[in-house]
Amino acid sequence: MIGILGKNRLDFFDILVLISCEGFIFTYFDPNFLALKTITAGGDTGSHYYTSVFLKEVLLPQGKIMGWMNANYAGYPLFYHYFPLPFLMMALLAYLIPMQIAFKLITVLGTVLTPIFLYISFRLAKVPKPIPVIASVASLAFLFNEKNSMWGGNIPSTLAGEFSFSLSFSLFCLLLGTFYKGIKEKKLLILNGIIIALMVFSHGYTFVLFGLLLPFFLIHRDWPYRFAYVTCAIILGVSLVAFWLFTFFANLPWVTPYRLKWIFGSAWEIFPPVLIPFFVLGVFGVIVGLKNEFVRIYGYLLLVSILGYFISYDLGLADIRFLTFAQFTLTICASFSFYSI
In this structure, how many other beta carbons lie within 10 angstroms of the beta carbon of residue 109? Predict the structure, then answer.
């Protein structure tokens, strides 16, 4: 993945900052505990363990990734209505190492990859230094925000069982950069299709938000080409997971819509104290960097995230999923304030 940065290679300072970010994350996810043959508990996480075991021991030997599992609810169709990628990675990795360890490593993978993918994304967009590494550092504030444990993306939500969303979220961060570079320089079409497929195969909310973001890429004098690029990338991505995605949609009539209007206990849930300085800098960053198209993408992303929050109930979706995108976007936009120096 680093290879697509081309001539803009990593320098020592970038490497040092990224290693520091990862080191900070692993002060929380102690490698000694990750390597133990124990099962993660907390929220829904523990109940997901048997899902990965069933996939490895029952479905994969039959050449399947979807099937009927009798463990809960007097049986239910496994992976017809949920996202298989993290569990498939766990099952495959468990052929090499114990499942308990494979399970834990994949559950934290999205968190570990987010600062790295964010950095690569910014570098691909040719955002001037040191903004890319500052964005990676800023992502830690979002990841370690403890004011919610159900919205997705942050560490408490991931540990509560939302690791599929976490992995998809990290891929979404990467896709913003690869897609921007690809559509601007007329390259990376296949790579973008693959990332879209992986993102969809991991969680659907990121794909919904990416769909809301696509009109921004089409507002350009070269819109006929961009429309063709967007169409081909989406078709390729959807085609790669069509065997699962079409089954998912075909079974929607038997699915209860997860309409959720979150009741906030306090305003601190929306404006966590740890993120307020980043929010203030984020507004400033969007203003001072507005001439840069990639900055405008993040500004547009903030708007559609807020829009998604207000229209989500009518779409049968959980509104708080979109607020987590808004919080993340505004936090990362703080890095753009360095355009002023």
Answer: 18
